[in-house]
Amino acid sequence: MRRTLLKKTLLLLPLLLITVIGHSQTAEYYYLSGKSKLILKNYKGAVSDFTDAIKLSPNIADYYFARGKGHYNLEDYNEAIQDFTKAIEIKPKFEDAYYHLGKSKNKLQDFRGAITAYSNAITINPKNGDAYNNRGNVRCSVQDYKGAITDFTNAITINPKDETGYFNRGIARIDIEDYTGAIDDFTTSINLVPKDSEAFYYRGTAKVKVQDFSGAVDDFSKAIEGVPNYTDAYYQRGMTKIAAGKKEDGCSDLKKAGDLGSSKAIEQSKKSCQ
Fold it and tell me: Which residues of 232-247 are buried (b: 16+ CB within 10 A; e: fewer)?
């Protein structure tokens, strides 16, 4: 779906450019020009255009919102927060502005502020699965794993074919040592996206915790198939093989992880492989 959305966005670009060319230099002209530059990832140019639009029409929420997105992509998160806040001041039910405000506050590790912003987006649109997923991730950052799992479950209910909620809930379940539940979530995530190396990796780590060493080795191997230089997967596979009594194979994996730059693999090799 993401690729389809990208193609649609790119198809819109010529229409935006035609519209821009057809306007005199009004606020709308600068706004459309800025939107075109956002699509082309010319974020500085976009911010400049949105600023010109705001100078001409300072009470349009969409202009501040668009400039906020430009600032966000430039990693100017404080500026982005100011713009999203202004957009909300003008348009109090601006769901997307609250959502992006949450993203910006999370980047600055203002976790409580991010949770509040996502909560406001959800209040406006209780079907915003992305806001539930993001709020769940922030709740994990403040170790509210129960709240996070509730958020991920809500995201899954809204979008049951989106692997994100299952993956995130699996991570949270590892954090609360619900390894069986985590394995179930990663399995569903993998069924939806069969080549997700990260999901295989984390399912492998959960299987280690329930002493399913054979299953864990298989998962780490699948992770490595997708990402041949997956350092942590080599390390974990090596440690799992050693735990299962396959020292020679395990030490080979630790050596590979060390060659890829893992200092902990090098240290572990000294302890386990001499």
Answer: bbbbbbbbbbbbbebe
In order of their start, the domains of the chain are 212-274 (1.25.40.10)
Determine the Cα–Cα distance for residues 258 and 274; give it in Å rounded to an integer.
15
- Shortest CA distance to 81 belongs to which of 100, 109, 66? 100
In one-letter notation, the amino acid at residue 138 is V
Please give the pLDDT value at position 8.
Answer: 44
- For 124-175, what is each residue's pLDDT tens digit? 999 999 999 999 999 999 999 999 999 999 999 999 999 999 999 999 999 9
Residues of the chain below pLDDT 50: 1-23
Instruction: Give the C-alpha separation, 61 to 96, whole Å.
Output: 11
Exposure on the CB side of residue 122, measured as CA atoms within 13 A: 19
229 Cβ neighbours under 8 A, 6+ residues apart: 260
Q: Residues for the chain: how many in total?
A: 274
> Which residue has 């280690």 as its token pair?
208
Residue 272 burial class via C-beta count within 10 angstroms: exposed 0-12, middle 13-18, buried 19 and up: middle
Please say whether the beta carbons of 133 and 168 come within 8 A: yes
Q: What was the pLDDT predicted at 3?
A: 30
pLDDT of residue 24: 53
Q: Please give the Cα distance from 81 to 105 (Å, whole number).
A: 7
pTM to 2 decimal places:
0.87
Query: Coil, helix or strand for 237?
Result: helix
